[in-house]
């Protein structure tokens, strides 16, 4: 009978995820990273071969080492080509697979099928999942989560009956998760928490053996995590992606981290105004930082106080706090203050708290039956609708960034990206208006200058275009696209010396379109 219910829950989870997220199958690629990961990446479009696989394992392109993610994109391109529907469906299938393994793990570890089902459903179709699933470039999220959840499920078998083969399989699956996304470095920490609850190995092993066995067996996992941390830090530092302490003070980092922890919880319980990009606020109010710090401290004290009575609170809360550490902003990479996709793994901790915490507040079975079932149906229905609606914003770049501008303030990146979308529709004046706003919000935003220059060029305003390319190069002297674009204008104006010089500089930096065309037409030797 239990097996029958297990199969039923899995079918319902799959159907629910397809209904809530299936809309993404009709979405397009967007102009935010999809070009670098997929549509303009030659290695991806070569498909899976010796050279492309070698590149996947040796490159830190885009400031990350995640070879399995690259290979996943290569496989998609080999099957679906430039059709975005196939890429989106593949991502959805990976998410659904991760969801199924999460349910199987929770059900096996706790023996509580209905709490496991609610926890998994809440995770599966929450609107915060949309960014991870609907964004083709974020394949690393769903792929790494798939391997992480299979690792959890395998670990549940190992915890019940420790065998070397199961241990090695866990280690392999963890390695695959790391090779899909570096933020999975926190998984050894999560496994230690799962040892406490729901696996209850701390009690089974006895306190005297805790340090000797449970920690010792995590050492290979921890070593792999440390290695990936070093690789990621090196790659991001090499590509100048890490914000310096001069630009972003320790106070700003800690303040933003405390507020973000609180905001993520807020968006979990009230998923409104979700956006693809949240600009970093360098002038956070002191009262927001203080209130957030107090709020987080009170919850932490509470869960430690009830650690024995309600261990799921302790495990869920520390899973939430711990798995957000790599992306919470202590080491800041990029211009975002937070991101919906960062909640993908941490949200599992919140589901533990909800799925096992709420029933524990209802003392009698009769009250649970009267309240929990209708409440669960209502919550899941609302979440499914909101997720379906959020998927619609990801239909294309214009819709996505227009929505982001409606729900955020001072969003320079959204203005720039919407400007690119307008440019792709040949609406160049609208594009220039957005680029102007992006530059007004962030005067050192070299990409917006380059993009505005291209829009001016398309309108025939070459003088303005060259001025913008000059500014982009002044802000970033190794900006290949600006050299390439300025060189092209020089060449069509008859300035072959300046044009060839810029084109050669761009090619040396990795962008060779203009120099190839110039050589073909005999402008440059």
Question: Could you describe the 3D structure shown?
Answer:
The protein is built from 27 helices and two strands. It is mainly alpha-helical and 525 residues long. The chain has one domain (2-397). It has a two-stranded antiparallel sheet. The longest helix has 29 residues, at 365-393. It starts with a helix and ends with a helix. The model has no long low-confidence stretch (mean pLDDT 94).
First-to-last CA distance: 78 Å
Q: Strand order, main sheet: write it out.
A: 1-2
Extended strand count: 2
Uncertain stretches: none
**Biggest beta sheet attributes:** 2 strands, antiparallel
H/E topology pattern: HHHHHHHHHHHHHHHEHHEHHHHHHHHHH
Overall 3D geometry? elongated
């Amino acid at each position: 009978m239990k097996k029958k219910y297990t199969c039923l829950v899995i079918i319902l989870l799959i159907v629910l995820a397809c209904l809530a997220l299936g809309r993404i199958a009709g979405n397009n690629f967007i102009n935010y990273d999809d070009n670098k990961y997929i549509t303009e990446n030659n290695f991806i479009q070569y498909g899976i071969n010796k050279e492309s696989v070698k590149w996947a394992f040796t490159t830190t392109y885009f400031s990350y080492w995640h070879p399995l993610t690259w290979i996943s994109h290569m496989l998609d391109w080999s099957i679906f080509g430039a059709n975005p529907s196939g890429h989106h469906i593949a991502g959805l299938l990976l998410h659904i697979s991760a969801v199924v393994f999460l349910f199987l793990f929770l059900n096996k570890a706790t023996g509580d099928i209905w709490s496991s089902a609610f926890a998994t459903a809440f995770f599966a179709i929450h609107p915060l999942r949309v960014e991870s699933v609907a964004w083709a470039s974020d394949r690393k999220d769903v792929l790494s989560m798939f391997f992480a959840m299979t690792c959890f499920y395998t670990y549940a078998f190992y915890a019940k009956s420790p065998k070397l083969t199961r241990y090695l399989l866990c280690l392999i699956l963890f390695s695959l998760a790391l090779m899909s996304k570096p933020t999975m470095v926190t998984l050894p920490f999560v496994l230690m928490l799962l040892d406490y609850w729901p696996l209850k190995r701390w009690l089974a092993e006895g306190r005297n053996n805790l340090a000797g066995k449970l920690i010792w067996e995590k050492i290979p996992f921890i070593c792999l995590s440390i290695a990936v941390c070093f690789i990621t830090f090196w790659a991001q530092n090499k590509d100048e992606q890490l914000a310096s302490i001069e630009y972003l003070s320790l106070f700003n980092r800690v303040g933003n981290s405390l507020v973000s922890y609180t905001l993520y919880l807020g968006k979990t319980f009230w998923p409104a105004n979700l956006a693809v990009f949240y600009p970093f606020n360098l002038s956070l109010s002191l009262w927001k930082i203080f209130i957030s710090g107090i709020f987080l401290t009170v919850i932490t004290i509470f869960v430690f106080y009830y650690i024995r009575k309600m261990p799921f609170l302790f495990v869920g809360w520390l899973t939430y706090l711990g798995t957000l550490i790599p992306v919470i902003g202590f080491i800041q990479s990029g211009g975002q203050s937070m991101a919906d996709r960062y909640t993908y793994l941490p949200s599992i901790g919140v589901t533990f708290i909800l799925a096992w915490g709420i029933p524990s507040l209802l003392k009698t079975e009769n009250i649970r039956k009267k309240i929990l079932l209708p409440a669960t149906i209502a919550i899941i229905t609302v979440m499914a609708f909101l997720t379906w609606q959020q998927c619609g914003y990801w239909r294309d770049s214009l819709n996505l960034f227009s929505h982001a501008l409606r729900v955020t303030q001072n969003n320079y990146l959204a203005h720039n990206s919407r400007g690119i979308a307008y440019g792709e529709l040949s609406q160049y004046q609208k594009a220039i208006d957005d680029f102007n706003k992006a530059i007004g919000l962030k005067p050192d935003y070299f990409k917006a200058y380059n993009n505005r220059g291209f829009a001016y060029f398309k309108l025939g305003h070459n003088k303005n275009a060259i001025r913008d390319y000059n500014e982009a190069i002044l802000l970033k002297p190794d900006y290949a696209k600006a050299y390439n674009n300025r060189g092209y204008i020089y060449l069509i104006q008859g300035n072959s010396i300046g044009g060839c010089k810029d084109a050669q500089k761009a090619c040396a930096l990795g962008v060779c379109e203009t120099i190839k065309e110039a050589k073909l037409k005999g402008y440059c030797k």
